[in-house]
């Protein structure tokens, strides 16, 4: 489990949801991935064309580029458990 | 200007450029508002939307954005290329942007609040990039399969339609037809300006596509179901705007191609833009009489369209050559065009639509349908009559003189079998054969011909290697042998 995590957080401006998502992400990474993650924040208001590559629809969207495969988590990342499942840091529970 | 617009009774329209659809919607879709197009799988809703965008970009200088949630962009481009649309070229000319949003539930985790701002940002970016006036969302309902929080989704869709309205975007939103509602997710709740329903039915193994304007706020529109066709030239809707019987009736006459037959028709032949029915049993020479008419029309420099439902064009050309009529030279000159089709290949409406379409393209002065009887076997009586009425009205409004041949069965009375269509015909000529002295004699008479003093004689006619020869019957009521008749002249 020494993979390094390359994460992208897509937002559109400094909305409350975007700010919440970023602070939640920082907290989760510090707790679970300390020293082996990088976060790039992409503001689509400034760079709308960048939304195409990762098929961005909902905002905020967190995209895990590495390790493969690509994972997407949408929302303000307020449910830590879900975020960990989404990043494959916790096994997915069978019944959803 | 804005005030002036508000005072108008009919709202502004964005023409779809789809033949027929602009007629039944009185000019197109509501400008600056979304229109919902719903239909089952394969009903043609994507193609309708793409036509709206492509025509907008090509004919009305309104660039468009195609946001697709379903197929990927290259598959879509391929699908519409078979119908004559080159999306790549329009994209290269910056008149169209195709954006593709794929949502796969299995690779998305949802946690906490979100919105669809990503869609808005992308849409806005695309609209600004080319100055788009039109947008198509195809099929936005698939998002319901990709996102779990339908509450957020519904609120965001509501916001999206309002957002497009505020920007004056004319949008087409496609949706799957639902069981109880027009759309599976009830999108008609959000889009209330205009709702179009498409349908694809198969009856007795023959498929027909139909379109209906369910709702159109602030505009009059046709309320019927109208058949439509998808072919290599795109979509065509058969309108019925001409059902009002308001076409002009010209006084001009056109020769039947035979002096002797013209004589029977008040001395001058048929009226231009009238309908002529030639009926008779098999082998009576109906097609030859039709060919004479074509020959004369082409010789006058008129354009002729010949619809064949029994023979192939080359077979017909060969057969007519033996009667001294060379149709090939008119084909070579571009004055005569054949359109051959098997009657049972599709439904009656599709046939008539194809004819409509072909006539629109070729713009003929004369049309021949040979034989109309084969076509009549494809539908029910009332259907046939209704559709024939439409096509005849269409011919008349275009000023086309139409000649129909009809094959009657030998066991039935000639006049009875045609009762269904005869009232639609202005001139009706019967052709028959009887056997006498071990010879088959052909004869014909003009049963009716509206608006002219026509002959009530029964006359003999024969097909020679120099065309049709019509002669009065001899004193004993028998045909004067052709050879003799010729000598008299």
Compact overview of the structure:
Chain A has 96 residues and is an alpha+beta fold. Chain A has helices at 16-32, 80-86; strands spanning 5-11, 37-43, 61-66, 71-74.
- The proportion of residues in beta strands of chain A is 25-35%
Shape of chain A: globular
Percent in helix of chain B: 25-40%
Terminal-residue CA separation of chain A: 26 Å
**Structurally, how many domains make up the residues of chain A?**
1
The number of helices of chain A is 2
CATH class of chain A: Alpha Beta
Write down the domain tally of chain B. Answer: 2
**Unreliable runs of chain B:** 1-7, 485-489
Total DSSP helices of chain B: 18
Main interface: chain pair and counts? A-B, 35 and 25 residues
The value of Rg of chain A in angstroms is: 13 Å
| Secondary-structure arrangement, i.e. CATH architecture of chain A | 3-Layer(aba) Sandwich
CATH topology of chain A: Glutaredoxin
Structural class of chain B: alpha/beta
Strand order of the largest sheet of chain B: 5-4-7-8-3-9-10-11-12
Share in β-strands of chain B: 25-35%
Task: Outline the structure in words.
The complex is a heterodimer of chains A (96) and B (489). Chain A has a single domain (5-86), classed as Glutaredoxin (3-Layer(aba) Sandwich). With 96 residues, chain A is of the alpha+beta class. Chain A is globular and about 35 Å long. Chain A has helices at 16-32, 80-86, and strands at 5-11, 37-43, 61-66, 71-74. Chain B is an alpha/beta fold and 489 residues long. In chain B, the strands form four sheets. Chain B has a nine-stranded mixed sheet, sandwiched between helices. In chain B, strands 17-16-18-19-15-20-21-22-23 form a nine-stranded mixed sheet, sandwiched between helices. In chain B, α13 (348-362) packs parallel to α15 (381-398). Classes of the chains: A alpha+beta (96), B alpha/beta (489). At the A-B interface, α1, β4 and α2 of A face β6 and α6 of B.
């Amino acid at each position: 489990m020494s993979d390094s995590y390359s994460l992208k957080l897509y937002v559109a401006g400094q909305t409350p949801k975007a700010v919440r998502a970023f602070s939640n992400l920082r907290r989760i990474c510090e707790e679970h991935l300390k020293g082996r993650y990088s976060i790039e924040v992409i503001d689509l208001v400034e760079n709308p064309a960048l939304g195409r590559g990762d098929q961005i629809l909902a905002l905020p969207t967190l995209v895990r580029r590495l390790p493969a495969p690509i994972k997407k988590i949408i929302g303000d990342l307020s449910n830590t458990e879900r975020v960990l499942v989404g990043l494959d840091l916790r096994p997915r529970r069978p019944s959803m | 200007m804005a005030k002036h617009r508000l005072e108008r009774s009919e709202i502004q329209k964005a023409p779809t450029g789809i033949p027929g659809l602009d007629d039944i919607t009185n000019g197109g879709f509501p400008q600056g508002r979304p229109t919902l197009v719903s239909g089952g799988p394969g009903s043609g809703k994507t193609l309708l939307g793409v036509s709206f965008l492509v025509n907008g970009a090509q004919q009305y200088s309104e660039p468009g954005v195609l946001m697709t949630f379903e197929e990927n962009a290259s598959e879509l481009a391929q699908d519409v290329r078979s119908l004559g649309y080159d999306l790549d070229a329009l994209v290269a000319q910056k008149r169209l942007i195709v954006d593709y949003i794929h949502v796969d539930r299995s690779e998305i985790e949802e946690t906490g609040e979100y919105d669809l701002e990503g869609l808005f940002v992308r849409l806005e970016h695309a609209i600004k990039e080319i100055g788009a006036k039109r947008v198509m969302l195809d099929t936005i309902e698939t998002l319901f399969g990709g996102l779990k929080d339908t509450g957020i989704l519904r609120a965001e869709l509501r916001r999206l339609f309002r957002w497009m309205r505020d920007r004056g975007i004319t949008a087409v939103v496609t949706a799957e037809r639902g069981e109880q509602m027009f759309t599976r997710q009830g999108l008609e709740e959000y889009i209330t300006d205009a709702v179009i329903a498409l349908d694809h039915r198969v009856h007795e193994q023959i498929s027909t596509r139909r379109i209906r304007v369910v709702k159109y706020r602030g505009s009059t529109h046709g309320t019927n179901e109208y058949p439509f066709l998808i072919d290599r030239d795109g979509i065509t809707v058969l309108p019925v705007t001409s059902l009002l019987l308001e076409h002009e009736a010209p006084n001009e006459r056109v020769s039947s191609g035979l002096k002797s037959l013209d004589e029977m028709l008040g001395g001058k032949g048929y009226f231009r833009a009238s309908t002529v029915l030639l009926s008779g049993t098999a082998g009576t020479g109906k097609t030859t009489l039709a060919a004479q008419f074509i020959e004369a029309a082409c010789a006058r420099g008129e354009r002729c369209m010949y619809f064949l439902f029994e023979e192939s064009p080359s077979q017909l050309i060969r057969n007519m050559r033996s009667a001294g009529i060379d149709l090939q030279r008119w084909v070579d000159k571009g004055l005569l065009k054949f359109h051959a089709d098997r009657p049972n290949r599709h439904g009656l409406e599709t046939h008539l639509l194809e004819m409509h379409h072909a006539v629109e393209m070729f713009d003929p002065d004369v049309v021949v349908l040979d034989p109309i009887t084969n076509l009549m076997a494809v539908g029910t009586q009332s259907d046939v009559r209704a559709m024939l009425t439409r096509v005849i009205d269409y011919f008349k409004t275009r000023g086309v003189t139409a000649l129909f041949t009809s094959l009657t069965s030998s066991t039935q009375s000639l006049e009875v079998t045609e009762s269904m269509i005869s009232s639609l015909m202005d001139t009706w000529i019967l052709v028959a054969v009887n056997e006498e002295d071990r010879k088959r004699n052909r004869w014909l008479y003009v049963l009716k011909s509206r608006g002219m003093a026509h002959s009530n004689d029964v006359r003999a006619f024969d097909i020679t290697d120099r065309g049709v020869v019509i002669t009065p019957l001899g004193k004993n009521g028998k045909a004067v042998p052709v050879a003799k008749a010729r000598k008299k002249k």
